[in-house]
């Protein structure tokens, strides 16, 4: 029995060389629409059992028939989500871009399964895709919170919309106050230029170094030339503090949104992983 196994392995190695199997797999992988699919293509083995060979030929024939009929299979590229799923499973909070990847993949699985279900002449493909579970609710929740640019939508939750509006309104008030300061006669002589800047996420004004003692406040930075100090005037400290608190409230709400979406992904990570394997 051992000799038979060795002989079989030797024949397999010879067949791979004669067929230039590795070159074929590289060409096949280059046509895959996804990173996981490309990896699986490169790992394909030569089948020796007639049943396995027959099944793979049926899969290939059915897919070729769909393409020959002019079928536009809705198979879009999707990333390798394994590391994202592992992070979610461990309780990690996913980034908006990762959630977009999950949503995009769930959309692809739904589109492909729906497309194949409309074709009765592909029983093997039907059987393969029967293992896919549609997770429409997770996709809906992600799409309702994350935009196409990978940003959390302002109206993702009523709480976020309120917090963002309050922060934006107060930022406008703060900037108006700054504009009044830098264009006032009091600051005309001591400012390097009539503008304001941000240092450490706080608004500051550019004061000529020789006049820094005339502005009571907090020094945040010094220009490269040493001619300008960036000072947060005392009368602006309270406004900067309040603006910072409002922005922290926005960040906290965004974190809660990402945490909730990540929890949804985590609870279905095994289903998504299985879908990923089927689609690849």
Stretches where pLDDT is under 50 for at least 5 consecutive residues are none
Average pLDDT for all residues:
88
Major sheet summary line:
4 strands, antiparallel
Radius of gyration: 30 Å
Task: Give a short overview.
The protein has 280 residues and is an alpha+beta fold.
Notes on the structure:
The chain is of the alpha+beta class and about 280 residues long. It contains twelve helices and four strands, in the order H-H-H-H-H-H-H-H-H-H-E-E-E-E-H-H. A four-stranded antiparallel beta sheet has the order 1-2-4-3. A hairpin with a 5-residue loop joins strand 3 and strand 4 (about 230-235). Helix 9 (about 160-180) runs antiparallel to helix 11. The chain is elongated and about 90 Å long. About 20% of the residues are buried.
Considering the chains and any ligands shown, give keywords for the structure.
280 residues, elongated, alpha+beta, 4-stranded antiparallel β-sheet
Annotate the secondary structure layout.
Layout: H1 2-18, H2 21-30, H3 35-42, H4 50-68, H5 82-89, H6 96-117, H7 123-129, H8 136-145, H9 158-182, H10 185-188, E1 197-199, E2 202-208, E3 217-222, E4 228-233, H11 234-267, H12 269-279
Helix pairs in contact: 2-3, 5-11, 5-12, 6-8, 8-11, 9-11
């Amino acid at each position: 029995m051992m000799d038979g196994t060795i002989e079989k392995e030797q024949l397999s190695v010879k067949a791979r060389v004669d067929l230039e199997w590795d070159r074929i797999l590289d060409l096949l992988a280059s046509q895959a629409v996804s990173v996981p699919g490309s990896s699986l293509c490169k790992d394909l083995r030569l089948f020796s059992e007639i049943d396995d060979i027959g099944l793979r030929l049926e899969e290939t024939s059915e897919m070729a028939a769909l393409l020959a009929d002019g079928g536009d299979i809705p198979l879009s590229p999707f990333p390798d989500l394994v590391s994202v799923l592992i992070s979610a499973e461990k309780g990690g909070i996913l980034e908006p871009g990762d959630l977009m990847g999950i949503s995009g993949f769930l959309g692809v699985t739904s589109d492909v399964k729906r497309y194949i279900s409309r074709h009765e002449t592909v029983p093997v493909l039907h059987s393969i895709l029967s293992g896919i579970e549609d997770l429409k609710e997770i996709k809906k929740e992600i799409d309702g919170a994350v935009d196409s640019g990978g940003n959390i939508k302002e109206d993702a939750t009523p709480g976020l919309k309120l917090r963002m509006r309050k922060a934006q309104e107060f930022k406008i008030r703060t900037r108006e106050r700054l504009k009044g300061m830098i264009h006032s006669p009091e600051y005309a002589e001591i400012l390097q230029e009539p503008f304001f800047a941000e240092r450490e996420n706080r608004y500051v004004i550019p004061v000529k170094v020789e006049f820094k003692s005339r502005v009571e406040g907090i020094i945040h930075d010094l220009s490269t030339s040493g001619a300008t100090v960036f000072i947060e005037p005392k009368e602006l400290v309270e406004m900067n503090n309040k603006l910072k608190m409002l922005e922290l409230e926005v960040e906290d709400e965004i974190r809660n949104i990402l945490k909730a979406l990540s929890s949804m992904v985590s609870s279905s990570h095994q289903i998504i992983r299985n879908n990923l394997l089927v689609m690849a």
